[in-house]
Automatic annotation (TrEMBL):
GO BP, sorted A to Z: NAD+ biosynthetic process via the salvage pathway
Name of protein: Nicotinate phosphoribosyltransferase
Natural source organism: Algoriphagus boritolerans DSM 17298 = JCM 18970
Matches recorded under Gene3D superfamilies: Aldolase class I, nicotinate phosphoribosyltransferase
Similarity comment text for this entry: Belongs to the NAPRTase family.
InterPro entries: Aldolase_TIM, N/Namide_PRibTrfase, NAPRTase_C, NAPRTase_N, Nic_PRibTrfase-Fam, Nic_PRibTrfase_pncB, Nicotinate_pribotase-like_C
Length: 495
């Protein structure tokens, strides 16, 4: 199912940091507003101390850019802003400029569901400085969160080893949009369904859920509660068995399951939400099997994440389905991805591009200059390396060396002629016009699965993963070093 609707039904042009607007005003005031520039959105470290990241959020970015427009109400708000001396922050002529501003940028991006790595751009924006600057905060807000949650979901699904993972974190999510975008990203990352009904409506994600402890407690007995639920939903019976005594709850579920079977229906399974999940799942499996319910599923919940699931797997817990909420939708152990948006080139009056580099005492924070892209090389269906390269430089098919952007001693020689390759940044907007065919969410989820399958298992280890090779092509490495040394010519680096 493909949902074709604007996600917000209005523009979000003021969903930005105030300094983006003050910079836009200063660009306009200095005559630089229409100067063409290139910005790249990227991150510096894989989240969760992992070996990969899963890109998500592009659909929201497209929606935002399609609706990028300063409306009268936006300008009315900006018009009343005052400086400390009581003067307007923004001149009326600038506000008129904003009113007539139309989105005209080129945007290239990796497709949602693509496995990505540090330093390589996820989104590249080319256009007038003012527009590029005004896009920054919203793009980071969207990509940072959804990419983080999709990655967390992928890790949890890897730990589950192919067994279904249900996302039900709505009540613990960071607000309404946090819940909706988390449900969407979690589905991309491999979850099979969500408890979030609105996410089901908006995105076409399958919804799932049965009953809570309050349902059991509202009846005189647990058995009575199970029977009443079975009467209401004879085809959807997953009984929550740990309200009082877990193993007795399993026995009551079996009694109702037998009644269902006599009516031609079948109990789907049970859910355990507390206690020693390894112990109780094993005991429950024995009871279910002995009673003639070998196909009944055992669903586990209770603050699960990839590490707890891995531990339960190592204990040979008899769990078939995993319900994950808080630690998924909040990215509990790492609340932010930390993606950044940096200027990498600016166009001069003579039409040439001047590459730009930002310095830092931390080599990790020195950006990659120029107009660059990313190629992924495959051998027999497996990804072997990513190369960040300048688009205006030819790549020698006979051999190229890629150099780790954070450690120039780490190098890898590639023979492009012997690999299959994919250029990762795809055209999304050209001169402000959408040129990309938006895939369905199911197609994005399928891409994510294929991308993860293309990674060697050593890169997908939850603890101490093997480092996937990502490097700068030699020309780009040389350009970066030249710019860094030029910028540092008055600094001996000894401060």
């Amino acid at each position: 199912m493909k949902i074709t609707k604007d996600l917000y039904q209005s523009n979000l042009v003021l969903l930005t940091d105030f300094y983006q607007l003050t910079m836009a005003y200063a660009y306009w005031k200095s005559g630089k507003g229409e100067q063409e520039a290139v910005f790249n959105l990227f991150f510096r470290k894989n989240p969760f101390q992992g070996g990969f990241t899963l890109a998500a959020g592009l659909d929201y970015v497209i929606d935002f850019c399609k609706n990028f427009k300063f409306e009268r109400a936006d300008l009315d708000y900006l018009e009343v802003m005052k400086n400390k001396d009581g003067s307007p922050v923004f001149e009326p002529v600038f506000l008129e400029y904003l009113q007539n501003l139309n989105f005209t940028c080129d945007i290239d991006a990796v497709e949602e569901g693509t496995v990505v790595f540090p330093n390589a751009p996820l989104v590249r924006v080319r256009g007038p400085l003012i527009q590029c600057q005004l896009l920054e905060t919203t793009l980071l807000n969207i990509i940072n969160f959804q990419t983080l949650i999709a990655t967390k979901a992928a890790r949890i699904n890897i730990a589950a080893q192919g067994e279904p993972v249900l996302e039900f974190g709505l009540r613990r999510a960071q607000g309404i949009d946090g819940a909706l975008s988390a449900s969407r990203a979690a589905f991309i990352g491999g979850c099979t369904s969500t408890s979030n009904v609105m996410a089901g409506k908006l995105f076409g994600i399958p919804v799932a859920g049965t009953h809570a402890h309050s349902w059991i407690m509202s009846f005189e007995t647990e058995l009575e509660a199970f029977q009443a639920f079975a009467d209401a939903f004879p085809d959807q019976c997953v009984f929550l068995v740990d309200t009082y005594d877990t193993l007795n709850g399993v026995k009551n579920a079996i009694k109702v399951g037998e009644i269902l079977r006599s009516k031609g229906k079948e109990m789907i399974g049970i859910r355990i939400d507390s206690g020693d999940l390894a112990y109780y799942s094993t005991k429950a499996r024995l009871l279910l099997d002995e009673a003639g319910f070998p196909d009944a599923k055992i669903v586990a919940s209770n603050d699960l994440d990839e590490h707890i699931i891995s531990s339960l797997k190592s204990q040979e817990a008899d769990i078939n389905v995993w319900g994950v909420g808080t630690k998924l939708v909040t990215a509990y152990d790492q609340p932010a991805l930390g993606a950044v948006y940096k200027l990498s080139a600016i166009k001069q009056e003579d039409g040439t591009w001047e590459p730009k580099v930002k310095l830092s005492q931390q080599s990790l924070k020195i950006n990659i200059p120029g107009f660059h892209n990313v190629k992924r090389y495959f051998s027999r269906g497996k990804a072997v390396a990513d190369m960040i390269y300048l688009e205006d430089k030819e790549i020698d098919p006979k051999g190229v060396i890629i150099i780790d952007p954070n450690d120039a001693t780490r190098r890898k020689r590639l023979m492009p002629a012997f690999y299959q390759e994919e250029v990762l940044l795809k055209p999304i907007f050209k001169m402000g016009k959408l040129v990309y065919t938006i895939p369905s969410l199911a197609e994005i989820k399928n891409r994510a699965g294929n991308q993860l399958e293309s990674l060697d298992k050593t890169h997908k280890r939850l603890v101490n993963p093997h480092l996937y090779p990502v490097g700068l092509e030699e020309n780009l490495h040389q350009l970066r070093m030249e710019l860094v040394l030029k910028a540092k010519k008055f600094d001996n680096g000894m401060d």
